[in-house]
Amino acid sequence: MGTAGKVIKCKAAVLWEQNKPFSIEEIEVAPPKAKEVRIKILATGICRTDDHVIKGAMVSKFPVIVGHEATGVVESIGEGVTTVKPGDKVIPLFLPQCRECNACRNPDGNLCIRSDVTGRGVLADGTTRFTCRGRPVHHFMNTSTFTEYTVLDESSVAKIEAAAPPEKVCLIGCGFSTGYGAAVKTAKVTPGSTCVVFGLGGVGLSVIMGCKSAGASRIIGIDLNKDKFEKAMAVGATECLSPKDCTKPIGEVLSEMTGNTVNYSFEVIGRLETMVDALASCHMNYGTSVVVGAPPSAKMLTYDPMLLFTGRTWKGCVFGGWKSRDDVPKLVTDFLAKKFDLDQLITHVLPFKDINKGFELLYSGQSIRTVLTF
C-alpha cells in the first residue's frame, strides 16, 4: 500500500481522562517498527472492559485509545515480521502469544508474559505509535482498536480466513471466545451435566453457548435483569431466574431446584459477592466454579475456606483458556462452518463516529454487543 513507511493521519476515539466521553480526534499513527504490524480496523466491538478504563476500575494511563475486540486488514509490516503480510485479514489479540515464555510453552498456559494487564500503555519497545495534538497517546492491552489505524506487536496479531465477515468475527477477539472457552476449555463441561451461569451479558451468553455445545443437559441463567432471559433461552439456557425473586440465598435455591447436582458454575459479572455465590452454588464435593468476569482492581475477597475443603474446584480463566494466535483462526473457521452463531450476540451495528451512543446502549442494558464499523 502507498502508505507503507509513512505516518498515517486518521480518526480515532481518544479518552483524555477518566469519566469523560470519547473525543473523535485526528491522530497520527507512526509506521510499524521491527516485529510490528500496522492494521486498518474494519469493525470493532464495544466490551465492558473498555468501560472499566473510563470508570477507573482498570488501571490505565491517559490519554489513551481503548478498544480491543476487532477485525482488521494488515496495511504494512515492520522488519522481521513473518506471520502476516499486507492485505491479510486479521484479529488483534489483547492476549498475545509470543510462543517463547513459559506460559506459552506450557500446553495448559495462555497468559503470555507480553500481556499488558498492568496498563503500561506502550508496545514491546516501551514507546507509543499514536500522537494527537502534539501529545503521545497510550495504547490499551496491546490492541487499541477504537481508531481507523493501529499498530501492534506481531505476537498480538492472528491471521484469519479472508472470507470471514469482519462485523461478526470481531467478537472472537474477546467476548465470544472468553465465554465459550470458559465452558469448553477451562471448565471442560461434560455431556449431561448441570451448569449455572451468573450474568447474562454477551460473555455470559457465550458461556451458555459453550455449555450447550459441550452437551450440558441443564443450563440455568441468573441475572437481575429479566429482559435478558429471552435471549439466554434462545442461545441454550433451559431456565432462568432472578435473585430478586428468591427469598433464600441463591445457592440454596439452586440446590433445591437441581436436587443438589450443579456440576459447573460460572461468574460472568466481576462482582466479589457473586463469585462466592457461584462457588457455593456448585456441588460441595465435585463441583467446579469458574471466575470469568474481570474482578475490580485492588479489592480483596473473603470467603469460608470450608467451601473448598469439601472438594470443590475454583478456577480462573483468561480469554477462555485459548492460546490466542493458535486458536483464534480455528474459532473463525468453526464460525464459517456454522458451528456457532454470533448473530444472536450482536444487537446493534453503528458507524464508528457514534461510539458514545454505543456506550450509552451498554449502560442502559439495551445492547448485548454493539459493533462499530468504519
UniProtKB/TrEMBL annotation:
Catalytic activity: all-trans-4-oxoretinol + NAD(+) = all-trans-4-oxoretinal + NADH + H(+); (E)-hex-2-en-1-ol + NAD(+) = (E)-hex-2-enal + NADH + H(+); all-trans-3,4-didehydroretinol + NAD(+) = all-trans-3,4-didehydroretinal + NADH + H(+); hexan-1-ol + NAD(+) = hexanal + NADH + H(+)
GO molecular function terms attached to this record: all-trans-retinol dehydrogenase (NAD+) activity; omega-hydroxydecanoate dehydrogenase activity; zinc ion binding
PROSITE patterns: ADH_ZINC
Positions of transmembrane segments: none
Family statement: Belongs to the zinc-containing alcohol dehydrogenase family. Class-IV subfamily.
Annotated Pfam families: ADH_N (PF08240), ADH_zinc_N (PF00107)
Location(s) in or outside the cell: Cytoplasm
Domain Alcohol dehydrogenase-like N-terminal: 34-161
Zinc among keywords: yes
UniProt cross-references to CDD domains, sorted A to Z: alcohol_DH_class_I_II_IV
This enzyme's EC code(s): 1.1.1.1, 1.1.1.105, 1.1.1.66
Keyword DNA repair: no
Protein name per Swiss-Prot or TrEMBL: All-trans-retinol dehydrogenase [NAD(+)] ADH7
PANTHER family: ALCOHOL DEHYDROGENASE, ALL-TRANS-RETINOL DEHYDROGENASE [NAD(+)] ADH7
One GO CC term, this protein: cytosol
Subunit annotation: Homodimer.
Cofactor(s) needed by this chain: Zn(2+)
Domain Alcohol dehydrogenase-like C-terminal: 202-336
InterPro entries (UniProt xref): ADH-like_C, ADH-like_N, ADH_Zn_CS, GroES-like_sf, NAD(P)-bd_dom_sf
